[in-house]
Amino acid sequence: MPVSQVCVYCASSPKIDPAYxxxxxVLADALVQDGVKVVxxxxxxxxxxxxxxxxxxxxxxxxxxxxxxxxxxxWAHKGVQHFHFVGDMHERKKRFxxxxxxxxxxxxxxxxxEELLEAITLKxxxxxxxxxxxxxxxxxxxxxxxMLERSVEEGFMNPQHRQMWTVLDDPAxxxxxxxxxxxxxxxxxxxAPVR
Length: 195
What we know:
Helix 1 runs parallel beside helix 2. This protein has helices at 18-33, 46-57, 68-72, 89-97, 110-124, 142-153, 174-180; strands spanning 5-9, 37-40, 62-67, 82-86, 102-105, 132-135, 166-168. The protein is of the alpha/beta class. 39% of the residues lie in helices and 16% in strands. The protein has a seven-stranded parallel sheet with strand order 4-3-2-1-5-6-7, sandwiched between helices. This is Cytokinin riboside 5'-monophosphate phosphoribohydrolase. Keywords: Cytokinin biosynthesis, Hydrolase. It comes from Cesiribacter andamanensis AMV16. GO terms for molecular function: AMP nucleosidase activity. Its EC number is 3.2.2.n1.
């Protein structure tokens, strides 16, 4: 499956370890080099800002999706020419998924975690079927991955649900990880419940 567009979930905080910014650069490089269009939250700071800066510097294509109330407080990245301003956070998350060939989660706070877990839930229900790649930089997502594993072990999720996401430590391998992700079907709704 050719990868033409991805959505990247990531942090807006600038007060984080430099390793996360470096990983964002590597991710942007890999995506632009492969001609992949990027969709993101539209922010100007933190990993969102770095992602946009790098994609634009390399001549890539990036689209921001942001609720109007964030635009009003001037959170939008000024250099991004392609923007969709939407009514609320729910519409924003829905637009993130439109036309995307994969979701990529860089480290982030509660917003990133919420977006990622909603996407995993939609995939469990067969409402979203594309690859979900978790970039586990510096082991950031280890506690979440342990919690998801516990959910399986304790019977809150089925063992096949482990195939809904792929964990990647090196963002340089993002395209290969997307292409190698296990296929997923809308029929996943049939085994979404634990029986």
